[in-house]
């Protein structure tokens, strides 16, 4: 019972992050399941089964708040489903000894990307409003779907930053569209895992616990997407994923690092993560202060212009009477 409660809380936290950032539910949940010793394929299958429900509720919530571009959902969701089914089939055929470090490496890469992306890079609005082409979204969906199934997560970490980087869709609609299209990916991946694994190793109670937590958090996250600073949250989640999957790799047959080496790596990683969080918080505050200053300056300039116009008018009206 304690495990189920912890999984429900983890699902709630992961969905709050995913619904606010458009990523990290699968990566976070799969990392947790791997940490407690779940088979990699079964972990990914369990998470994707839970995501069928969480993505459905999340998509509906984002749609209600006007965060969804349905053209983007169609163009990226269908190829994403194809890639997810293929990825699930590949992962189902790998042995645990090979799959666990391989999945940890994929998750570590995604975590590093998350950490770097949200710590050092802001959002660009230069191309906002330009159409997103199918020739861009279809390959992106295919790759993101495959990575999502084989890595236990990756639809958001691959898809969201790529679309955000284009600057053609406002952030809230990027997040809402990615979360909504992930329903198709989750269904396809689950079908692939069930075809390859059957119900072997898949804990339906664990999937249900993750689902309950995610369903509770989904509407809250859809509302929070306009209020939570993505930069700080992304740095925090990226750091957790990097540290957890580094631990898996260090203890695997691929590396087999000793205790002293592992502790040295952890010290460096925790220090780097703390620095990244501090930098993200500082930059978020600095950018917010600059935006407020620019807003005040703009308002002051408009007031002065309006005042000058009124004063000039008064002088002109006074001239003839003189």
UniProtKB/TrEMBL annotation:
Record's compositionally biased regions (Low complexity): 297-307
Membrane topology of this protein: Multi-pass membrane protein
Spans annotated as Disordered: 289-322
TM segment ranges: 102-125, 204-225, 232-251, 263-281
Record keyword Ligase present: no
Chief location of this protein within or outside the cell: membrane
Keyword tags: Cell membrane, Membrane, Transmembrane, Transmembrane helix
Pfam (any one): TauE
InterPro entries, sorted: TM_pro_TauE-like, TSUP/Inactive_protease-like
GO cellular component terms listed in the entry, alphabetical order: plasma membrane
Tree of life domain: Bacteria
Location within or outside the cell: Cell membrane; Membrane
Family: Belongs to the 4-toluene sulfonate uptake permease (TSUP) (TC 2.A.102) family.
Protein name (Swiss-Prot/TrEMBL): Probable membrane transporter protein
Native species: Streptomyces abyssalis
């Amino acid at each position: 019972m304690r495990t189920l409660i912890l999984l429900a809380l983890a699902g709630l936290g992961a969905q709050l992050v995913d619904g606010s950032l458009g990523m990290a539910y699968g990566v976070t949940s799969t990392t947790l399941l791997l940490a407690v010793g779940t088979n990699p394929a079964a972990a990914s299958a369990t998470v994707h089964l839970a995501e069928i429900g969480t993505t459905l509720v999340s998509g509906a919530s984002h749609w209600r708040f006007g965060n969804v571009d349905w053209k983007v959902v169609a163009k990226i969701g269908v190829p994403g489903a194809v890639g997810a089914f293929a990825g699930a089939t590949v992962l189902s055929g790998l042995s645990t000894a090979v799959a666990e470090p391989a999945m940890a490496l994929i998750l570590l890469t995604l975590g590093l990307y998350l950490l770097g992306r949200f710590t050092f890079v802001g959002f660009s609005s230069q191309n906002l409003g330009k159409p997103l082409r199918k020739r861009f979204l279809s390959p992106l969906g295919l790759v993101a779907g495959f990575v999502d199934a084989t890595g236990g997560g990756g639809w958001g970490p691959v898809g969201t930053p790529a679309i955000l980087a284009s600057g053609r869709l406002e952030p809230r609609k990027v997040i809402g569209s990615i979360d909504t299209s992930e329903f198709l990916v989750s269904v396809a991946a689950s079908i692939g895992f069930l075809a390859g694994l059957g119900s072997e190793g898949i804990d339906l109670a664990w999937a249900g616990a993750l689902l309950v937590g995610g369903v509770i958090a989904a509407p809250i996250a859809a509302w929070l997407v306009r209020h939570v600073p993505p930069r700080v949250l992304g740095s925090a989640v990226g750091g957790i994923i990097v540290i957890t999957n580094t631990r898996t790799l260090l203890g695997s047959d691929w590396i087999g690092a000793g205790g002293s080496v592992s502790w040295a790596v952890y010290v460096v990683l925790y220090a780097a993560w703390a620095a990244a969080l501090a930098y993200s918080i500082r930059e978020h505050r600095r950018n917010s202060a600059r935006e407020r200053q620019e807003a005040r300056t703009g308002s002051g300039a408009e007031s002065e212009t309006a005042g000058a116009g009124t004063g000039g008018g008064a002088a002109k009206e006074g001239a003839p009477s003189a």
